[in-house]
Every structure is written in C-alpha cells, then in structure tokens.
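Appendix B. Chain record.
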Amino acid sequence: MRIACCIHGLDGGGAERLMAGLANRLVESHAVTLITWAPAGTDRYPIDPRIERVGLSLRGESHHALQGIWRSGQRIAALRSAIAKSGAEVALSFCDQMNVLACLATPVPIVVSEHTDPMHQPLSASWRIGRKIAYRRAAAGIALTDQTRRWMQAWMPHRPIAVIPPAIDAPPTGWPSLDREPGPPWRLIAMGRLSPEKGIDRLIDAFARSNGPATGWVLDLIGDGPLRQELQSLANSLRCANSIHFVGWRSNVWAELASAHALALSSHYEGFPLALLEGMAAGLPCISVDCPSGPRELIRSGHNGLLVESSNEGLLCGLNQLFGDPQLRIRLGREAVAVRETYTWQRFLTAHEDLLRQVVNAWHRKD
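Structure tokens predicted for this chain:
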C-alpha cells in the first residue's frame, strides 16, 4: 500500500511516539509519507530514511476566530496537496484537530485514530462541530479503548471502528533485576507533558505530604510543558524543592525507567496511558489514579499495580502504602511485566495494516 500518515508533529508525547514507531514499521512493507503541521526539524523521534518526510510548517495557535478559519483553510489546502503529491491510496491520521482537517482535506479514503478520551478532551465549540461533520467523511476509525469506540461510533455510523491499544518496545538487553531496592534515594518517576490534564499538581501535593521525602524517596518529573514554572513554584511552596526534580524531556525513556524504583500516573483523563504501560513493562511497581480511560484496563489493584481514587487524598494513601512496603513493591513489579506479552508492536502493526487494507479494498470495489 501507499500510505500517508498525518499528525500535528513529532516533538514529544505518547501519540507522537506511536506514530513514529508505526511509520518506521509500515515502511518495511509499504510506501509511507509522514506529514506534520510542524517542520521536520522539530522531530524528537527518529524516522526511517525510507519514509518521505513532509513538514508543512503550519503549526501555531490562532488568536481570534477569523485567524483560526484562515489557518484551517491553509492547512486543509496544504494537506490536500501533500497527500495528492505522495500518491497515497489511503491516509491514516492521529489526534483530534488533525483528524478533523485531514477528513476535509484528503482526496483518498482516511482512517482517523483518537489518542485521548474525547469525552474529556477540551475542544472549542467550533472544533466539536467540525469533528461531528468531518468524521462522517472517514472510511474507518481507531480507538484505544472500547469506551472511546462507543463514543466514535455515534459520529461514524456504519463505519468500522477497531480498538487498537498502544504498543510498547521490549526492554533493552541486560535490563536490571525487577527487585531493584538498593537505596536511598529511591526514585519515584512520572512521565508526561506538564499540562493541566496530567494532574502533576496533585501528585506534587500528595508526594509532599507523604512519608516519601522523610524516608529517602525523591520525585522525578520526566517531561516538559506549559505548567513547568507553576509546578516548580508549587514544589517550592510545599518546601519540597530538594525532593522534587524537574528533569525535562528525555529521548531515552528506558534509561529513566532503568534507574527508577516506582512510577506514578496522576492524570485527570487519558486516551490510554503509554507511560503507565511502559512503567509496567519495565517491571516497576506502578500507582495510578482510576481516571478515564485506560488505567483500569491495565491494573488489577494489589496484583500488578495500585489503582487509587482519582484525588489528592487517593494518591497520598496509595503512595504511603507503596513507600512503606518493600515486599509489595517487589511483588507488583514482578506481576506488571506480563503486559509485555499483550501490547506488542507486531500486534499493533498487524491491526493497522489489516484495517488500512480493508479500507483500500473497499474503495477499489466502490470504483
């Protein structure tokens, strides 16, 4: 197949990492063009040189409605031209705003993939209306969870929607023992964009009030984002600046996981929490709030992780339980690694190929 893959950019984030990984695997058997609003020079994930890389340099915020309409028109025209020039038979789009404009732009059948929980992701009224209209032009959809699939089906009647959870890499050769208890300091990590939906403020609050700082634990925040200064001020105000470190974005996730002793997820909502999945695959004891959607599908609380009430107090209680029980940490980490067998790249790749091929065949039959 000749496939055009579309996403806003590759400058960090779980959906972006998945798109880069998928495109790199698709190009083993197909002709792939990877198109982003952002310029290719901003990529943080490596792209196979066999992929035709198109950066449209049209990313940016609009400051008023007329500018937004103008920008959307520019993006639709540029995207239509790029897809046509690529000779693609089918397009695959990741993430909400790109999905809307790609549906309106593409001259070929398109598969749209949602990578957050659309029932909780904030979008303006104009984008919500646009999504309702545009998704009816899609040939098929992809959801990360069955809950999201049911939501998408309402806007895409009579279209196939596949549930394809994310994929994770296997840990590198020589991965450290699961019983990684030497310390202190012991390192609790959280990985993700420092933005409101990730709930890092409540994780900082819960950690500061927990028994962690007094017993040799530190909290390392892997990622960057618009709330960094605000969150640093919060850590300072709670007198925990020495125990809470803002590490910034890191390209080598496995290096961070290898030196960690536990992982926390504090999001208000997720599409499917890739950071949690990677922490479990690494053999870390993981604690997650029971937010929509994804953590409940991964964690059996007390067996392969801790699932706690989605609140500051829920995190506080869970952290104290985790910090105070070394044997619990070891047991949770040993059970967590079973996710490696389920969330494989081969499964993820095959599911996408099957759906894309189904769409291409249906298009040719219609012609």
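Further analysis of this model is presented in Appendix C.
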